[in-house]
Every structure is written in C-alpha cells, then in structure tokens.
Records
---
Amino acid sequence: MPQMSYIDELVSAIGKEKVLQDPSEKFVYGADWSPRTPQEFVPPDVVVLPRTTRDVQRIIKIAFEHDIPVVAGGGLTGMLGGAVPIHGGIYVDTTTMNSVIEVDAKNQTVRVQAGATLQEVNDAVHPYDLWLPHQPESKWVSTVGSAIACDNDSTFGVRYGKILNCLLSAELVTGTGEILELGHRKAHFTSSGYKLKDLLAGSEGTLGIITEATLKLEPIPATRQVDMLVFPRMGAAVDYLSRLLKAGLCIEAAHINCKRRLNFYTHSYRQKYGKDPEIPAWAEALLAIAFAGDSEVVESQRGYALKIAKEFEAQLVEEREIVEAWWASKYTLEFEPFKQKWPDSQTKKKFGAADPGVPVGRLEEFYHKFISVAEKHNLEIIGMNAYLEHPNSIGFSLSCAVFVDYRNADEVKRFREFHDELSKLAVAFEGTMSTFMSDTYQKAPYLEIEHGASLKYMREVKRLFDPKGIMNPGKKFPREALK
Amino acid sequence: MTSKLEEFKDELETCFGTSCGFCERGCPVYQSMKVKTLCMKGRNRTMLGLIQGKFEISPAVVQAAFECTLCGNCDRWCSLKNTEHTRAFREYLLRHGVEPMKEHSSILASIKSYGNPWFQPRSARNRWTKGMNIPKSAPGKQEVIFFAGCTSAVTKQLNKGLVASAKLLQKAGIDFATMGQDEPCCGSTLLRVGQTQAFKELSEENVRKFKALGVKKIVTACPGCYTTLKKVMEDSGTKIDVVHISKEIARLVREGKIKVTKTSERVTYHDPCHLGRLGGVFDEPREIVDAVAKFVEMPNNRYEARCCGAGAGLQSAFPKLSKDLAAKRVAEAKSTGATTIVTSCPFCETQLRTVPGMKVVDLMELLLDATEGNGKNNNTKSAG
C-alpha cells in the first residue's frame, strides 16, 4: 500500500472541509502587511482550518512525524512577517477557533479560543460592563493568539499594559503535539514556579500554537476625555508625562507624535475640511492624552494635567476636530463612509516601520537619528510615534515609519537596511530592537546583538518546546541554526 | 482587450500590500464561514493572483467569486471599490469560459423569455393591481410611474407591500400609473451574477421604453430596482428621477398628506443593503417606523447593517449559507426585544421570513395599517 502523504493524513485526521489545497486558496493565506516583494512571496503548501485544540494537536503531530514547517496565523495584519510562512509547509488559520468559552464576571476574566479577534472578545464581554483593554489598531482582525505571539501594541498601554498584563493562563500545543496549560488559571497573579506563560509573549508561534487563553478584563470606564497638546520638543512632552505620573494622575492613553506623523492620522480631518490641520509652526511634538473613569474624576485629573502643562511650554490644541480626527482614526476607527484612512494613504506605497525602544532620556536624540537614517536610505518619512505602553510608567514603544513600495525590490532592500540600522542603533542606545512587532525573519540574523550569550538559552528553550524546529521556522532564529 | 478586472489591478495590489482586513468584521459570509478566500481581502488576493497568472481558474476560484452577497459592507471600511471588483471578477470568469451557475443561467433564460427572473408569465404582473383603479401608463399621460419590480409583482405573498404602496400614493393624491404587464425587469440580478452584456442590452431597451412614455419620475418599492435604475438613468443622461417609495412616502407624511397614529409595539428596522449602504437611504424608513411604532435599533444598523443573505445570487446558488445569514440577522433583531422586523425589500422580506420566531412586515404595509381612516388601525392593532 503506498504511503499516505502528510496532506492526505491531514485530510483524514481533521476532515476534508478543514484542509484547503487549491493554489488560489493557498495564495490568499501567504501574505501579511510586511513589505515583501512579490518574488519573496511563498504561499504555504496547505492551509488548515482547525476548530478545536485536538485538531491543532492532530495537525502538529502529523507535521512532527513528517518534519513539515507549521505556521500559525490570525488576522494576517503583521507588519514584519511574523505569521507568514517563509519555508512553505502547513499554514494553520486559527481564526476558525473563535469561541468564547466562559465569562467570569465576578473575577473579571474570560476564557476564549485563541482565534477570537480582540473585538470578538470585547463584543462578548461588553454586556457584563467589562472590556479587554489590549487594543491595537488592528483589534477587529488581530486575534488573541496573535496578540500574544506577536506581543503587539495597545492604545491603552499606559494604564493597563499590553497583552501579557491581561494574560492569566494559556493553552499551548507544543512542537511535539503535547497540550500544556501555562499560567495560573483564574488567579490574577502567582509566585509559584517559573513563569513559562510569559515566554509566549512575542514567541511568534516558534514554541507551539496558542489555542486558548484566560484573560483579565477591566470595568468599562464611564467617560473618556481625549486632548492634544503641542510641545516645542519631543523631550518636553516626555518630561511633561513624567511629571503627570509623579503627580499621581491615572493616564489612560499617551501617544507622542512627531509633527510629520500626525498627518498620517488626520485623513478624516482633511476629507472634511479640505486642508491640513493647523498646528503651530514651532510645535515639534504632539501629545495625545486620555483620561477615563467617572466624569468628576476625569474632569479633575484633566484640569490638573492642563494646569501643569504651562510649565512645559505646552499648548492645548483647541480645535476639537483635529483631536477627534486623530482619535477616530487611532481608536474608534469610525470615519466617513467610503473615505477613511485605510488604505487611502497607501494606494501607492505601504507603511513600513522599525519598532525599537530606547531609554526615555534619549528619545529626542533617537528621533533625529531616525530621520537621518531614513534620509540616508532615501525613504519617504511618515514619522515617529512614541506610545506609553507600560502601566503607570514612562516606558515607550517607538514606531519609526516610512513609506515602502513593496513592488520595488530596491526600495524594499533600502527599507530593510533602514530597519536593521535603527534596530541595532537602539541596542547601542542601551535599548531594545523591538517593542511591538517582535523579531520575525527580519531580526533573526542579528538577534545576538541584543541578547548576547543568553541567545543560547533561548535556543535551548525553543528546542525544549519544538525539538525538530518545525514551528514557524526562520523566525527569531535562522532555520539552519536549529538544525 | 483589457478586462474590467485588469483595470482594478492597482487597487488589488494596494489591498494585497495593505492587508488590514477591516473588511472581515462586517462581512456576513466571512463571519459565517471564517474562510479568508470568502472575505474581500482574500477575494482581492484571488483576483490579483488570477490576473498575474499565479494559478488557473478552479472551482475554488469560482466559489470565491460567487459566494458573496455584494452587500457592500466591506466598502464601508475601505476606500477601494470592492463590490465593483467582485462584479468584475464574476464577469471575468464568465468571459474566460466559466459556465454560469445553473441557478444563475436560469435567471437569464427567464428574463429573456418572461421579462422576469422567476419563470412567471408576463400577465402575472397585473395581479396585484386588480380592483385598485390604477391607470396604465401611456405616452405623455402620467409623469410618475410606480415601478413594482419583478419579485414583488409576480410573488403573491409580496403583493401586499405593493398594494400598500399604491394605496398610500393614492391617499396622498399622487397622480401615477403602472406599466402593468409591460413593466420590464430592471436587470439587477443579471448585473450581480456577472451577465454584463445581457444587462447592458436590457438597460438600453429600458431607457428607450421610459423615454417613449415621457416619464419624469420612477417610484419603486424594490431597493434592487432602485439602485439599478437610478444608475442606468444617470449613466444614460436622461433626466428621469428614480426614487424609492420610502423617500416619497416619508415626504408625504411630513407634509401631512398621510396622517398616522402611533402604537406602542416594539419594532426594529432591517436596512436592505441596496437601499441603505448602496442606495444611501437610511433616515426615511426610520422616520416612518418611528411615526407609527416604538422604534428600536439593532446593534448593526445603517452602514453597518448585516446582510440578510439573499442578495447577488447567494440565495439561489448557496441556499444553506444564505439561510444561516438570515438566522443571524433575525437573532440580532430578537436581541432588541422587538416583536416585528420591518424592512423595505422583497428579497429581505422573503429571506427573513424563512426564520421562524419574528413577524416580518413590509414598511408600507406597516404604515398603511397605521394610517387614519384605514379602518384596520386602532392603536392596539399591529401590522402583520
């Protein structure tokens, strides 16, 4: 009897309807938001649509047996190729696993299948007056599993942190097909054992596939007030935020945009008024800041924040339309029908970014480096965003963004050089190469610059979970490095 | 010759490069199936791969093209012309040797032979007007035509909405005519299933007919006819105004030409895709419902209203999926605590009625029932 191919085994193990083999179907699952030339595009060899953890286990066991790469993905909105298969193999679309398993309103937790989008989770918990505050702009499409695996950013990081701050427990199917529960069930924290659950944040599917997660929720604030202030320097905005935290204010969101970057977010303003927003010529930094809670508390905190602002050469943006256009674009994603920002700003070129983190005191210095590196590589600059992403503290993630035409191989090459240079520079600044996109294939060749000798331990961790190196090969570590 | 689809290549590449996937959330088919080839992002990719020669036409490609209601929800979240891409995709496939789905080719055959998509004799169009004393249009006689639309005219269960529409126009003293059995098909269905050439020929003939009658305004109760005829009239350069009945009647209510009484019944309104998202008519139907009942909104409404699943040939070619979408919409309506769903589209009405548990009523029936002097209305009576 001829031996079954691994694809035949997949069909027999999980059912024909959950296995997509047509070339047109595979083509659809091969790309995300990352700038890659059409020549670099490698569709997976087969796409599977599991419904349960058992399905995922069956898939990985077959892959393990046949030594086939397994790449898990969610919304495919990654900006650096974390979930795209670069060595072919099996693409596991986790979005078919999107059930909300249990809402424990008293404990303020929810258990979900990891393919649920962040918005689906929020739709399910909204009736309990709760929400999941991990909110990247891709929340409608980004799944719980991919938010964990990519460790992406959140609009409300300064109050609630990122996904790891919400993650209590997660179910993982390892690279051998073993099912593990990592974490502390419904307890909000633990002092027991090694915190293996934390390994999952930014793991990019290289340790296994996250199939379920227990997430901590927060009560929905009654009101929210968003304001924008302009500063003559980025450093002044940083000092101001530091002062607000010292004052004891509870900031819900804080984003510093350089002047160029604001334009990327104010399409709806331009659509409505037919002009660019009027920002004073001296302003170099724009801080968007939100307070949320009961209206009296919000009013009082906002009032105090605006009072202090004068000490930092800041000026309140009085034109509410700019603030609202920015917020609508950034958070509510509500815009004029048929005229919104995605992807009208990107019809010719796409958004490409480096995502370093640098010490707070060197933000301004790094900003100027970003501009000069982008200019050196002859890239059109979108600008820089600094998001406060750590609860009640001044830690930033940086988005250093440029336009890239993915159809232009030379421009993609220049973008990569730009990205790598900034990443390495961030380490030289005593910072980190990545704050919301993870390492993917892009940073894999030079991860040692950041991690030094500890990279060896990371490889061993990877080997423990994925001894054959089949889980998302080429990400974090070049594929050969594990062989 | 460059196909319409190839003209969209730049847009398809933009979508491929951007990959935001905002179209997924409101796509009724994707949300039901969770297969990325069936949401707009995936469909745009499939089109791009096809014209780039990455793969050949296959059953999966055909499925990606036709398993869509063209409800336009994806266009709500994107500046690309997604529904136009999909129509061009269907046309491309038919031009490249794909046989029309048998359900769709029968629609074409029926329109050719009977002037409607449902294999009903032309005389069936006369049924609903019996005893109503509505004049038949003749050249130069009436400036306003009430255009019934094939589906409501030849389907007995849907006649009530037409009767209500005509009675309300009569009550308000509007001088109008119907075309009786000479009323043509607007061709909406042909356009949606990719039969572009047949649609073009039919539309040219229709423009000639309306011009010959000297019509100034066409009032229709069918959203599909509304968007289709409106576009055809605009494109052809005629000055004939096409108006949906809800707009016409809401104006008459506002002007006091139709007097109504209000009940306390909780009623929700389902936006037909062609009337709302694609036709831009949101307020007038709500105005009418609010005038006669306690109006409650569904969570997904107006631009974000979820499709009932009947459109663009889905009901005929993919009945199971189509019904699943209807069930989801009815469940959403139930969640509002309403007892009745009001809509203003024969397809939505029929489709939503396939799901038990809620009363489904045409907007004009609801209004007629609440008009003063109608006899049936008495503050406790509800339509149905």
---
Amino acid sequence: MKSLKLRLLAVLIGTGLTLGLSHAVAQASCYYKIAGGNAYGNYECTYTHECGGWCYYSCSCSDLFPGYSCKNVLVEAGFEIVESPQC
Amino acid sequence: MTGFLTIGLLQWCVLLGSFSPQSLSTPSFALHTAQRGFTGFKVREPNLYAPNVYADNLEFIATLVDLPGARNKQSYWELSYELYFVPEDKYYEAIKRLPKGPSNPTLEQFPGRMLLLEGHKKIRRLDTLKERTLHLTGVRFKQQVPDPQRTKFAHLMTHFSVKVFDAELKTTLYRTGLLFTEPYQDHPQDPNQAIARKTIYLNFMVTPEGYLNLSQLARDPDSTKW
C-alpha cells in the first residue's frame, strides 16, 4: 500500500513537472534579437510580431559581399522572406 | 520504489534536456523553421545624419487587444514600460557584444541609452478595447536627442514587463522583454522614402489557449483581431 502511494505521488509530481516545462518552453518561443553573419554579409533582426506559431522579424544588413543582397544574407541565415504577417 | 526512481530519473532527463545548450539555441519551431523576415529589409548606411526622420513628439500606444476573460471583473492587466533612445554607435557596439544567433538581450546590455518615457499601469476594467488601451501623447523626442546623434539607424527601445490575469482561463501570464525599432518608417505610398516614426506600438493578446502574443506592429485601433 505504501509502495502504491509512493508510485502515485511520483506520477503526479512527474506530470506536473512535464506540464510546467512544456508551458515554459512554449512561452519562450520567440527570441527578441537574431544577429550574425555569413558569406554574403552581416545581419541584425529584431522581433516585431508573432502569430500562428511564427516569429516575425524586421532585419537590416551591412557589409554585403559585392553582388549580393540583404535577401541573400537572410535566406542563407535561415529566414523565410514574406510580404507581411499571415495574421 | 524502483518505479519511483525510474520516473524521477526520466523527469530529471527532461529537465536537463530542456536546459542543454542545444535545446536553448534551437527550440525547433522558434528559430530556423519559424522565423520570418519582412520584405523591405534595409541595408544600413552607418552614421547617416537624418534629423528629418526624428519626430518632435512620439505617441505610445499599448493595447491588450483581446483576452478570453475580458468581461470577467476579476481579470486585470498590469504593465510597466520604458521607452529609450539608443544612439547608433552605442546600439551597434551592444549588438556586436551579443552572442551570434538568437538571444534575449537585457536592458543593461545597452549602455548609453536615454530614457524618454516610463510608467506603470494596472487596469482592472477590461470590457472594451478603449479600456484595454493605454494611449500616451506628447513624448518629447527630437529635442531630447543631441543633434549629431540624429542618425537614421539609431534605435528606439521599449522595455516592458506585462502581467495578465485572465479570470476566464484562470491563469496568470507574464512576459518581459526588449523591442527595438528605428526612428523612421517607410512612407506608406513610397517604400523608398523614409519618414519620421510618430507612434510606438506595444500590443498584447491572450489567446484562447492561454498564450500571450506580442507585437510592435501598427494596428487598426478599432479591431480586436490579431
């Protein structure tokens, strides 16, 4: 009986911990800054909006490699370029 | 007892896994798979003197766009806010010191900032959009900035801490952070022309799932749509 109570307590604590962590991770989904550089130039992006699970950033570039654009820098950095937020 | 240890060990693994460097830097849907940049991004022209894009005064509009418990009298919204000007040289010195890739910088990482506005408000009546809007006008800007520092790529920085209790969802949501924007914005009819930014927006919305959305985009003041 004591063992059963211990197991039940462990399951309850475990469930609470898992839910708490999931909530914390979900709340911290968008970063406020993304900055860096690659072969095409440097970029610096700042958070503007979020919706539908997407984080939207406004970006500026500097030190562009001749013949390349800010779009090249951002696409290389993993950004998808869109006209405006979907929602 | 063995079962207790097993479950405990599993939870410890989950906990450690959540804070490992890899999971902190790549929480799959937040970074490379879920980041989007707007078109109209700009190439920075360092130290470009542009006093014409500095508004004499700014408006600051903070809105809790909607929440499931808007009509519940137990719901409330509490907001602390500060608006700073960061000179271009100080801003980019700070950016260079940030870790490469994604980060959540703190106020202290931007020395040389100049306070333009600060305040705190707790709102207990949230029935209407008007009641959920904090609208401040006449925030002195251009005259606060020394003339040589009126460059196009200086930044305005909003530091906020928000707490919302939604009595319908029976949950309290918190968020704090730093938002940045330039003193200029694109002309609505001619994106190649820069004009003075006159309004700083800070928008929040509690979703039915209990997530606190955040945006600094300009919005229709009469709409409760995100």
